[in-house]
Every structure is written in C-alpha cells, then in structure tokens.
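Below: protein 1.
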Amino acid sequence: MRKAIILAGGFGTRLQPLTFARPKHMLPLVDKPMLRHIVDYLIENDFEEIWISIGSDELFKEIEEYFEKKQLKANIHFIKEPKKLGGVGAIKYAMREAEIDDTFALILGDNITDIELNDMFLFHKKNPAIATIALVRTETPWRYGVAEMKDDNIVGFVEKPAIGEETSNLIATGIYIMEPKIINYIPEDFMDSTGMLFPLLLKKGECLNGFKSDKFWVDVGRPSSYLEATAKILKSYGKENWIEDGVEIGKNTELNGPVVVYEGTKIGDNCKIKNSVIFENNKIGNNCNITNSILDIGCEIGDGFNVTTTLGKGSILKNNGNN
C-alpha cells in the first residue's frame, strides 16, 4: 500500500489577510479547497494511505472537519504537530507518527501540479536513492532550492541562492519520493525549509535523484500564485469563468477570465472583472474595475472603485457620503 505525507501545518503569512480566518490549505481553488486538490492528486496516482500533518492550533480543526465528512478512495489520517517544527522537523515527526517503513511520497500542502507522480515513483524505484526530488525550470531560481545535476543525480543543492549565483535554473518543487532511512539524517535543530535537508544528505554521501518535469507546478504561497493556480484549474475544467448559483451580475458588466465568483455575491452595472477571485457575499457597486484581485468573504465596494489587490474578510471601500 502506497503511503504519502502532506505537510499542511503552515500559517500562510504571505497570503494574509486571506489566512487570518482559515488555514491557507483550505483556501478555495475553484470548486474545492487547495488541500482537497492535493489529496485527489495523490489518489489519482495510486496512493491509498494519506497522512496530513497539521498544526495543533484551533484554526486547523477546519481541515479535520472537512475531510471527516468526505468519502474518499484513500484512508485519510491526521497528525497534529505539537509545536512549530519547521519543514524538516515536521517530516521527522510525521514519519514517526505514521510509522513509515517503506518508500513514501512527501508533498507540501500548497503545491498544485500535474507532475507525473506515478512515473516519478517508478523512476525512483529503478534508480535507487535516499530521495528523488521533482524538478522544474524557472526564470527566477533564486526564490527556490536550486539543483545542480549530473545525468539523473543531484550533485549540488543550494536553498535560495543569491541572485546571479544560481548553478542552474532547475528548482526543487515540494514533491518528493523518499526512503524511510532518511529519518536518521534529520537533525533535531529547527530548519524552516525542507530544502535545507538536501545539502546535509549530499555531505553524508547519500544519493539524490532529480526527476525533471515540464508539467504545471505552482507553490501557492502568494496572491499571484493563488490566481495562477485558479487559472490552471479552470483551464483543466475547460472553463474561463466559474460563477456559482445565487450570484447577481448587473447590466453591461464584463467578466474577462479567469474569474471565479462565489455564491451570494452581487455585482453592479458597468463593471469590469478580470483575473480575480471574489469570495461569498461580496457587494460590488456600479462602474467598478476589479483586476488581479482576491476579495475575501463579505467585502463591500462602493461605486466607481478600481481594485487591484487582496482584500481581507469584511473589507469596506466607500466614498465619503456613499452609505
């Protein structure tokens, strides 16, 4: 039985204010939460035992409550991290709690992708290594962990190098296939990023594989990448826009996708909405332009506003006297 661990214990500070009221992993991506997309991805790739590592804060109960109500084609278990462990510490804690004793997948809980995980698993089995890392190319490698390759082996790894000091444009996604013995190398010291583990493994003489892919991958850590993931999912559904039941849209209002509008929202006349996500129960006046924006639940926008940002739950934008 294939096992997978999802690390979903982060607070999503770069996605604030959207994450003030919910775990970032429960942010909606079109028709379901981000974390559900990841669970479905694992199930589609034949993983039958899925362990979700979450924080012990009250906020994370939303994750448990959501999955307890779902009938899925995999066994879903939860691990509560007793304190902030960092990415590397969370791996060790989750492995112990899940009693990992065979090859397993590890995926960070904000990765939206269609990287061929089944192919990656088979690649790892045919090319023995302590871990195989899914790699993609990017024009901004300094934001990530950069891998230096020789054939299929990673021979160097630097986490977030300085601009201009990158050894390649191949970067590590948060998708890994690992062997259980990796737990023996995980230090007790706090290490925030999972990528900080890999230079240690190389220094110990362990083999790391790189699985290069040109498939879609995004780390949903910022509002811009949240919108990018939304656009990708809409495209995979063959849709430009996603408008839920109960949405009211005024006369001469244009939706230039990708646009998602959730139930209970009212949009006035002569508005232009482009590349944006509007959560439930928003009220948008007439003659508004909403571009590259995310509006959390219950925002109220007066007439004639231009919005190009992320607004937190219950935000109000009104002109003086516009009551």
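Below: protein 2.
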Amino acid sequence: MKGFAMLKIGATGWVEKEKPACGPLDAICRPIALAPCTSDVHTVWAGAIGDRKDMILGHEAVGEVVEVGAYVKDFKPGDKVLVSAITPDWGALASQGGYAMHSGGMLAGWKFSNFKDGVFGEYFHVNEADANLALLPEGMDLGAACMISDMVPTGFHGAELADIQYGDNVAVIGIGPVGLMSVAAAAIRGAANIYAVGSRKNCADLALDFGATKIVNYREGDIVEQIMELTRGEGVEKIIVAGGDNDTFDQAIRMLKPGGKIGNVNYLGEGDTIKIPRVEWGCGMGHKQIVGGLMPGGRYRSEMLARLVTAGRIHPEKLITHKFNGLENVEPALMLMKDKPRDLIKPLVIID
C-alpha cells in the first residue's frame, strides 16, 4: 500500500509499506474521507513530537471497514465508520482512572501519526475496534463526519475543561476549526457572552453563526484591554485557549476573574516554557486555574457528538472551505494547512 508520510523533520513524501495486520480486537479500514490538521504541520515542520522516519501522517478520517479481528462484535467488512483521532487502550489503568487519552503514557492514546502510521494511506489500522469506531449515521455529510474525528471533540473538550456553566462570560482565544467548535460548545453549555478572539473574516462570521456574541480582533488592539473593556474591568469567568502560542497564557490569566478557569486544547508545538504573570495570577493564590487536556477519544464520544449533528444542534460541515478528490490530493490539502491562506478554515479530501 502507499501512504503520505513524514520522511523526517521538515520533509514529507509518498512511501510504500505493507498493509497493516489485523489483531483479534482490531479492524483494518480504508479511508473514504480525510482531513489534514495543524497538528500534522507541527509534527512535520516543527518536530513537535520529535523525529519520525517514514511515518504515515493523518488522524482525521471517515473509513470503510475491510477486515475485523476474531473478537470484534459490532463491526463487519463494508461498514462505514467514524474514526476517532484518539484511540485509547481501554483496559489500561489510566483508562480505568478516567484518563483514557493517556493510556500507555502521557498522550499515548494519540496513536495515529504519533506512535504508529496514520490514516493518509490506502489502509489504516484501528486498535480495539468495538471501543474506538462508531457507525457512520445514514446520510451524514462526510465533512461533518470527518470533523467528528478531532475538531469537534477537541473543541468540545475545551468547554469541558473550562467547566462552562449557565451564564458564564467566556472568551475563546483562537477561532480556527477547533476554536469554532469551542464556540459552539460554549453556546450549547449555556454561556452568556462569548467573546471570540480572531482576525480572519470567514472565521469571525462562522463564530457568530455558531453562537459568539462579539468578535475580538487582536489586530485592532491588545485583546486583554478589549476584553476588560467589554466586561467593565471584571474579566471573564471562563476561557478556552484554542490557538495562539506560549505567550497566550499570559494574556488569558490577565483577563480571567479570580476563581476562573482556563481550558487549553491548543497544541503547543514549539518552545520549552509558558509564561504566567505572577501578580495577575494572584501571586499564586488567585484561584485562577489552567487545565490542559487531550480529548478523550473513543466510540462513546463519537456517537454522542454524532447525535448533536444529526439533531441539527451543531454544523461542523460549515468548517469545510476547500474540497479535494482522491488520495493523491492529501499532499496539497496538507500544504494548505501549512500555508494557511486567509480563506481557509479546513480542507477535506474525498476518496470515493
């Protein structure tokens, strides 16, 4: 089989590999829709998780099952499936303790294009198929379905980590695809004012469509000053960090109320430290919490989020701005994510 791979830090290309083997609990799938992610960009060009040699990229897919292991009960060849980007080992102690995404070690529930070949190939392997796949709902848009792999669950996990409650004023920093889904999640969880921080018009327009009440454009002034003015100097109760860099936490702490919480789902791909302002953090005693987490992954979460789509409560298909056809177009789709033209939110590659 062929796949599009990270050859080494800073280099990508097509490779030939053996079709993956299927274990007794596992499944082999072929992709029917794929989406590249900014995480792929960090992995290749920033070396965020270290060097990888000839590792097939990609962790966002809708698939068709072509083979299942002897112990798989709920799936069979020919089934169209949602594929979670995070595929934990559900029997691990970390999973039993409530942190399935860290089963096998920190972030080790993230297997595709981290510890094993990803989904940008003619076939890909899914561990523990009954726990990590979900049936594709009949008639679901493939763009929406592919976003359930990562963008939707990651954005929603930001709202969970920030513990958004009814009536909270919320800032969402970064309104790329994950941040846009964080806006949608904050709205569903009952936030009052949702201040979406970003500058690109198409993202700002979609943020308003998803429930943001105000766009805060960092090109028009310091975002801390803007948020403090909008909240009459009080700050916000909750913040979701879905973009920015290692300095973003400095800004977030400054605009957060005492007792507030920051949920971070931004992948920090570079640098060694983050900056926390001492005084604004209450000299360490301001009860301003930062909680960063990898989304849990797995079947239950995929099915839960798919219900929100089929019920018309969220519309992740609106994230798709560029469409391609054919596996060979994974490469230009990924380069779009690397170059980030201003009309881009998310590309999608349809395989059939």
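The chain has a mean pLDDT of 97.
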